[in-house]
Amino acid sequence: MEIGERLESGVTVLRPVGRIDNDTSPDFHARVIACLEAGRTALVDFDAVEFISSAGLAALMAAAKLAKAKNGRIGVAALKPVVQEIFAISRFSRVVQTFQTVAEGIAALQ
Amino acid sequence: MLVRFWGTRGSLPTPLGHGAMRAKLRDVLLAAQGQTIDDAAAADRFLDTLPFATAGTYGGNSSCVELAGTGASDEYVLCDLGSGAREFGNHVLHEKGPQRKCRYNVFLSHVHWDHIMGFPFFVPSYIPGNVIRIHGCHQTMREAFERQQSDPCFPVDFRKLGATIEFVVLEPGRSYEIAGMSVQAILQNHAGDSYGYRFSQGGKTMVYSTDCEHKFQVLDESYPFVPFFRDADLLIFDAMYSLADSISVKEDWGHSSNMVGVELAQLARVKHLVLYHHEPIFDDRTIDTVLAETRRYEEISRDGAALRITSAYDGLEIAL
Fold this sequence. Notes:
The structure holds two protein chains of two kinds.
Chain A: E1 3-8, E2 11-16, E3 18-20, H1 25-37, E4 41-45, E5 49-52, H2 54-69, E6 74-77, H3 81-90, E7 97-99, H4 102-109
Parallel strand pairs in A: 2-4, 3-5, 4-6, 6-7
Antiparallel strand pairs in A: 1-2
Chain B: E1 2-7, H1 18-31, H2 40-47, H3 52-55, E2 64-68, E3 75-79, H4 84-96, E4 103-107, E5 131-136, H5 141-148, E6 164-169, E7 175-178, E8 181-188, E9 194-201, E10 204-209, H6 225-229, E11 234-238, H7 243-246, H8 258-267, E12 272-276, H9 284-301, E13 308-311, E14 317-319
Parallel strand pairs in B: 3-4, 4-5, 5-6, 10-11, 11-12, 12-13
Antiparallel strand pairs in B: 1-2, 1-14, 2-3, 7-8, 8-9, 9-10
Helix pairs in contact in B: 8-9
């Protein structure tokens, strides 16, 4: 899966592209976990994500648990409307910090 | 094949209380303002226009599902014996009378209390001449029934029941011909194990899969529930928790979510998914909301034929 990465104000911004589903969630999981294992704060930019399945959300949950264990932080930003719906349906909006924009996310997490 | 739901709640029965009933009546009366309702038929037509949570209720009996129309007229098939079994038993007695001797084939998912608690109130079990065969994969079935229906917990000991009661241990993965149907069981992830059942007859298939926590790294054909659910006309599925709850605070509690139900059903080409084993803290409005969200998720994630989705309620009947 194509996942862009950049560092901004001490926050690692990961930008997956496309669908986070059965096929791509292992890659997504590996990248987010690697970021958090290294003790970094992660913000996942969902601007280019069209859809996320339960497998993708499970990967995000694993990352959130790891962040908590490592006293790290993770958030998501810029969810497209359909992905926002999925977050609401799954109740993930109550579990992972969600920001309207990447800038807002970076400001909150740095 | 007709599937009739006598109990659809998980964990314990949740009767509708006075406050909740009063609130529904108030909402109906407010909605009826300006309407002309002259007779019962007009009242029913009006009620049909209202949200299910306003004009009806999902009910509060614990797990019990009947498969009707599959065998002889005096033979019944049930999945689980939660508190809904009481009303089922009373229905049979009302229909057939206490003199008519019947055969009951029960398929138990597991012996947790909410799935067997109706049996001490299952009146046919007290009547000599009735035959009750309880099928399941747990060796502990008889012990569980005897323990719940014995001193000091219940005044009538299980061993004094009048009907002929047999426990038949099945092997998961093996196919059986029971009550005119082909039946198979599958081991499920739940404390103390639970089992799902696949029933087939006359080209129709119903799968009963409750109290199962689905954990998979990747959801594909290699996940055993995909072939088990394959092409089912009806899949009754434990969707007790939200996805977030089921993989965080309620992980390892042995239940699943609506989203996973949709994904499994889509992959297995199920025709109709029924959300079941409702969380007892959910009121009717919440269950209505979860149903709407589940249908929306199906729409978003659809890749092929549309999947029909219903939320089970006590009294629901689905013809296959």
